[in-house]
Design brief:
Elements lengths: L5 E5 L25 E5 L9 H6 L2 E4 L18 E4 L9 H6 L3 E3 L2 H20 L2 H9 L18 E5 L3 H10 L5 E5 L5 H4 L4 E3 L2 H7 L2 E4 L13 H4 L7 E4 L8 H9 L5 E4 L19 E3 L8 H19 L23
Length: about 350
């Protein structure tokens, strides 16, 4: 490695089995900078090792966890963790901040694709697409009259969270003439008024929503936020959609209300344990749509994310502060290691 080079490592979960990248290779052109050398990590790491943190100036991570142990090595060189996606529950933010490591995310890439994914599940549940697909395949056409869908006009679309993705969901849903309700302690009624969203408390949201979408990050505050007590507040005709993070929903409680018919159904892209276990009882239910934490991953999504991740590396290598920094307080303490 040339002296003074800014070495960028990209985790191997960004590669397909044949070695091709999951994103457009043209995205890597953003790393064409005289100070940057880049490579894919030699091994697939579930957790970034201290040895890896000692080798690279920046790490572009998809699923790999960055823990306090990752940053514990005495030879640590790492200055930037650039995460593919908007969630950062796989990164120890406090440890990064203490060690002066910048953490960036890529919200631009997920805003429209993930909002579209949540709306897709809403529409599939409303139209009972999975049931009608099964009837068709099994030649049970006579049963069509037993499975009318749910019209959207005047129904309540609810969201736990009105941030990056939640706001976009309401924008996309505007033509369906639904009522929009949300709970988010971090926004004001004035901020969401242009979206036609009314802010309510969490219990009211569970009681009134016909389609309730989870659009909040996973934190200690939101872990099992969707629990047995709150699920019991939902209408028997209501649906739950979770495209955020699995542990926000208590799966045991969700299975209970779905199995009992206490709510109409659910669309679940994320699970408490991933990959989901084959014996997870949710998989045996007929009133749930399940996808493998992948429902929003389109070419648009991954290419925009990759561009944002590599731009963060380029900006820091050029002596600039990257965009979308989670731990902003680090910027005042971290020197610009390279100057344009």
């Amino acid at each position: 490695m040339a002296e003074g080079k800014f070495l960028v490592g990209i985790t191997r979960d960004n590669l397909r089995p044949d070695g091709s990248t999951i994103f457009d290779p043209a995205c890597l052109e953003l790393l064409n900078h005289p100070r940057i050398t880049w490579e894919f990590l030699p091994e697939l790491e579930a957790e970034i090792s201290p040895a890896t943190a000692a080798r690279y100036d920046a790490l572009c991570v998809m699923m790999a966890r960055v823990t306090r142990a990752s940053l514990s090595g005495p030879e640590r060189r790492l200055k930037l963790v650039a995460r593919f996606g908007v969630g950062y529950d796989t990164v120890d933010v406090a440890a990064c901040t203490e060690q002066g490591v910048i953490l960036t995310i890529s919200p631009e890439g997920v805003r429209r694709p993930m909002a579209t994914a949540a709306l897709t599940l809403v529409l599939m549940l409303a139209q009972k697409i999975m049931t009608k697909d099964r009837l068709t395949r099994e030649g049970r056409w006579a049963e069509r009259v037993l499975h009318f869908g749910t019209g959207l006009t005047g129904r309540v679309l609810g969201s736990i969270g009105v941030g990056n993705i939640g706001s976009e969901l309401f924008r996309l849903a505007a033509p369906f003439a639904m009522r929009h309700l949300a709970c988010d302690p971090y926004v004001t009624p004035q901020a969401v008024a242009p979206l036609g969203v009314g802010l309510v408390d969490l219990d009211t949201l569970f009681r009134e929503a016909d389609f309730l979408c989870v659009n909040c990050p996973l934190t200690e505050e939101t872990r099992h936020l969707v629990n047995a007590r709150r699920l019991a507040l939902m209408k028997p005709t209501a649906y739950l959609v979770n495209t955020a993070r699995g542990p926000i929903v208590d799966e045991k409680a969700l299975h209970g209300v779905l199995a009992a018919g206490a709510i109409a159904g659910a669309g679940i892209d994320v699970f408490e344990q991933e990959p989901v276990a084959a014996d997870n009882p949710l998989l045996g239910l007929g009133n749930i749509i399940v996808t493998p934490h992948h429902v929003g991953l389109t070419d648009e999504c991954i290419n925009t994310i990759a561009a944002a991740v590599f731009s963060s590396c380029r900006e820091l290598a050029a002596g600039k502060s990257p965009r979308n920094v989670v731990n902003q307080q680090v910027l005042g303490r971290v020197p610009h290691y390279f100057h344009a």
